[in-house]
Every structure is written in structure tokens, then in C-alpha cells.
Amino acid sequence: ENFFSSKLSLKGVRALVTAGPTYEAIDPVRYIGNRSTGTMGIALAEELAARGADVYLVVGPSDVNIPCNIKTKKITTAREMYEASLKYISNTDIIIMAAAVSDYTPEKISKEKIKKESDQLSLTLTKTKDILSTAGKLKTEHQTLVGFALETTNERDNALQKLTKKNADLIVLNSLNDEGAGFGKGTNKIIIFDKKGNEYKFDKKPKKEVAKDIINTIIHYRNV
Ligand code: CTP
Ligand code: CA
């Protein structure tokens, strides 16, 4: 279903992409993380750059190679990702939040390594700031805001709710219910929903190809 041309230019367009996981420290040696590898977000940054866009990438701990034509800020925590992203938000035309940001962070980081003294251990976690929602609140007319939705149940409804609630223009539903797709896998199976009520369904394919589909859909959205 590659129904858009893949050569549509983004010259003169500035883009911000968030990618990868975040790590929230518990103590000097431990953290809360997630299985995101950063592959999808970095592929999006590459595809934007290939179309001529000026790309800023804010990326969490990831081993994926990042080409040098992409201005990159490496961060570790959700808080750092929020702060780094906020610096670029007002100066960009396309914002894609592909990062798997931790929703919660330990209320306090233990200065010393936590010892295994008791049989049970409870950590108090507090909610992190939502970067996509913040971008949605600050959004101006010329900006296109794109979020991801990672769901295991009620995929469609949850994705559409996120689109509205976070004031995004497009939301990419990443289906985890398909074997071989998602975190740590080479492929993704996506459906893109836009604010105008359109829905674009794609086959499972390598993340570099998925990135092309997403960028084409964004360009199409901006042009009509
Ligand atoms: N996101 C963000 N900042 C956060 C949490 C999420 O910018 N603190 C962004 C993600 O990058 C993604 C979108 O919000 O583009 C949706 O993330 P997701 O985890 O699917 O949804 P949440 O709103 O966090 O809700 P939940 O995890 O409960 O499904
Ligand atoms: Ca979340």
C-alpha cells in the first residue's frame, strides 16, 4: 500500500524526533527501563534527513548507529528527554515522538546501593511529564505533531483516544499483537490515524520501510 511517492521533499523543514527508551535510576547501579531499542525513531530521523529536513534527535540509551547529519542530543531520563525536547519544540515544523518514555520515575534515588535486607521491597514512583501532551498544548498552526501508541488491548480505541487527548495531528498505532513486530524486532505493523478521520493501514515490514510510510503520510497530511 505504498500509495504515496517516496521522493517528496522536505527541504527547509525542521523536524524534532524523540527516540529510544528512558532509564530512571533507582540507586547507583539499577534503573527502570523498557525494551525500546530506538530503531524506529532513528529510522524516522534518517528518513526525514534523506528528504532534506533539518533534523534534531533526542534519544535515550540506544545502541543503534546515528548518522552524523542528524543533530543529536543523548539523554538518559524522562525528565532529561522532556527538557531537551522543549528546547526544540517551538522551532520545528514536524514533531515525531517515537520514544518509549517512562511513565513513572522513582520518587527518590537511593544514594547507596539498596541492600537485599527484607523479603519484599516497595518503590514509590511518581508520574513523569508527558512530552507529547506538552507539545500538543504548545502547538501552533504550522506544526504537525505525530505521536505513537503502543497497545496490547483495545488498540484502535486507545490510539484514537491518545490522538484526541494529546492534541496530535497523527498517531501511529504500533501493534504488539503480531509476532515479529514491535520492540527488539526488525519489523513493525502499523496503522496511522489522523485528526481528519483518515486511517492508513500498512502491512508488517522492516522498520526502514515503515519510516518511509510514516513520513509519506505526514507529508500527505501537510499538503492537503
Ligand atoms: N509520551 C511522551 N511522554 C511521556 C509518555 C509518553 O511524550 N511521558 C509519548 C510517546 O512518545 C508516544 C505517546 O506519548 O508518542 C504515547 O505513548 P504511550 O506510552 O503509548 O501512551 P501513554 O500516554 O504513556 O499511556 P499508557 O502508557 O498508559 O498507554
Ligand atoms: Ca506510556
TrEMBL record:
Binding site for CTP: 103, 113, 148, 162, 166
Phosphopantothenate--cysteine ligase: annotated segments: 15-224
Cofactor: FMN; Mg(2+)
GO biological process assignments: coenzyme A biosynthetic process; pantothenate catabolic process
GO terms for MF: FMN binding; metal ion binding; phosphopantothenate--cysteine ligase activity; phosphopantothenoylcysteine decarboxylase activity
Catalytic activity: (R)-4'-phosphopantothenate + L-cysteine + CTP = N-[(R)-4-phosphopantothenoyl]-L-cysteine + CMP + diphosphate + H(+); N-[(R)-4-phosphopantothenoyl]-L-cysteine + H(+) = (R)-4'-phosphopantetheine + CO2
Every DNA/pantothenate metabolism flavoprotein C-terminal domain range: 10-220
Co-factor binding details: Binds 1 FMN per subunit.
Gene Ontology cellular component annotations, sorted alphabetically: phosphopantothenoylcysteine decarboxylase complex
Domain of life: Bacteria
Enzyme Commission (EC) number: 4.1.1.36, 6.3.2.5
UniProt keyword terms in alphabetical order: Decarboxylase, Flavoprotein, FMN, Ligase, Lyase, Magnesium, Membrane, Metal-binding, Multifunctional enzyme, Transmembrane, Transmembrane helix
Pathway annotation: Cofactor biosynthesis; coenzyme A biosynthesis; CoA from (R)-pantothenate: step 2/5; Cofactor biosynthesis; coenzyme A biosynthesis; CoA from (R)-pantothenate: step 3/5
Record function comment: Catalyzes two sequential steps in the biosynthesis of coenzyme A. In the first step cysteine is conjugated to 4'-phosphopantothenate to form 4-phosphopantothenoylcysteine. In the second step the latter compound is decarboxylated to form 4'-phosphopantotheine.
Family: In the C-terminal section; belongs to the PPC synthetase family. In the N-terminal section; belongs to the HFCD (homo-oligomeric flavin containing Cys decarboxylase) superfamily.
Record's protein name: Coenzyme A biosynthesis bifunctional protein CoaBC
Origin species: Ginsengibacter hankyongi
